[in-house]
Each structure stands twice: as C-alpha cells, then as structure tokens.
Amino acid sequence: MNIILLGPPGAGKGTQAQRLVDNHGMKQLSTGDMLRAAVKNETPTGLKVKAIMEAGELVSDEIVSALISDELASMGPETGAIFDGYPRTAAQAHALDQILEAHGRTLDKVIELEVDEDALVDRITGRFTCASCGTGYHDRHKLPKVEGVCDVCGGTEFKRRPDDNEETVRTRMQEYRSKTAPILPIYEERGIVSRVDGMASMDEVTSSIEALLA
Ligand code: ADP
Ligand code: ZN
User: Which residue among 41, 84, 90, 190 sits deepest, i.e. has the most Cβ atoms within 10 Å of its Cβ?
Assistant: First the structure.
C-alpha cells in the first residue's frame, strides 16, 4: 500500500501517519520532519530552507522530491509508504508519479482530512511536544497532568515549532489553499480520493482511515 495523507496544516496528518506506522508497519515519509531534521543538523539543505520554513512558505519542489526519492530508495519493496505533507504542489504530484514508477510502486489512495480553518489555528498555536519522547500536548486542550512534567517519560523539557505562531500559520493555510488543494483533482480523476472528517476525535479519525484501508 502506498497512500497520501492530504490536508491543511494541523489537520492531524502526522498523528494519523504515526498510528498507521504502529498498526501496520508502514513507513511515514514526512517532508516536514525531514526538513526539520536538516535544519537541526545544519546540513546544506537545512541552511537553505530554514528561513522559508519559519515564514511558512513552501521550499522548492526539487529539494523535497529529492528527499522523498532518497527515502524510498532506502526502503524494502514490501514496506508501504505513507506520504505526509508531500506532495504539496502540482509539480510535486507529477514528480511523485515518476518516483513511484521508478520504484515499481503504485499509489493506492489519497485520504483527505477535512477540517475547519478556525479550529486549525487554535490547534496549531497551542501545541508543544516533550523534548525527550515527542509526546504531544496543548496549552488549552491537553496539558501534562503535573505541570511541566511529561506524562509518558517524566521529561521536563518541551519544545514548540518555530512556525507554529499565528502569522506563520495563516501563511501556511494560504499556501495550502492556493498550491496544495488544487492537486486533488489530479487524484480525483483516478478515482482514488477518500475524505475523512478531521474534526472528529483522533481515535474516530483513525477508525475511519482503517476502514478505508481494509
Ligand atoms: P504542516 O503542519 O504545515 O503540515 P509540515 O511539517 O508538513 O507542516 O511542513 C512544515 C514546513 O516545511 C512547511 O511550511 C514548508 O515550509 C516545508 N515543507 C514541508 N513539506 C513540504 C513540501 N512537500 N513542499 C514544500 N515545502 C514543504
Ligand atoms: Zn516525554
């Protein structure tokens, strides 16, 4: 299985992708995670994309498609791929077709998470994660049980993404509307798009996605 999770920033693509990894042994290919790792490690790519990401704009199609291609090349053919945050432009969608073909893979499904934009800004601007284990929290919806201590690992350091501020979130939404949403028709023509209500609880969203993959 090779699937794309599509949806605006904060729709929950990363959370759902992680659950598919846990439940099905698929691999999550998140260009956002790959780029954040590049920034953290100060690689040449990281240095190039840092300011663009902080502004909430899209990095070049060439950079992200190369990341995806390298990642797929390192995977065994039996491992399914979950594309999370890629493709985000028509050029990336076409590049993905070629990359998949080169690896003898076909795209099975595109799952669109549908969400209300005001809810997204609220979700994103409050989120933070444990610096040691990555567990996600939220200022208004999910604080640790003991203030300042991770429920899962007891860690006391937390981090926030530098692009999770309101102004940058608005730019990310705008990029999604103008460049990413328009690629849906490419996949609709192939009859492989399914929609899931991303405003439901995380568990309900997971069940809906599982039902689509069954
Ligand atoms: P989001 O929560 O906005 O879905 P991601 O973690 O997927 O965030 O991406 C964070 C940032 O990384 C984007 O705002 C963009 O700058 C860059 N990025 C990630 N994936 C891509 C991509 N496929 N094409 C261009 N830029 C990307
Ligand atoms: Zn933790």
Answer: 84
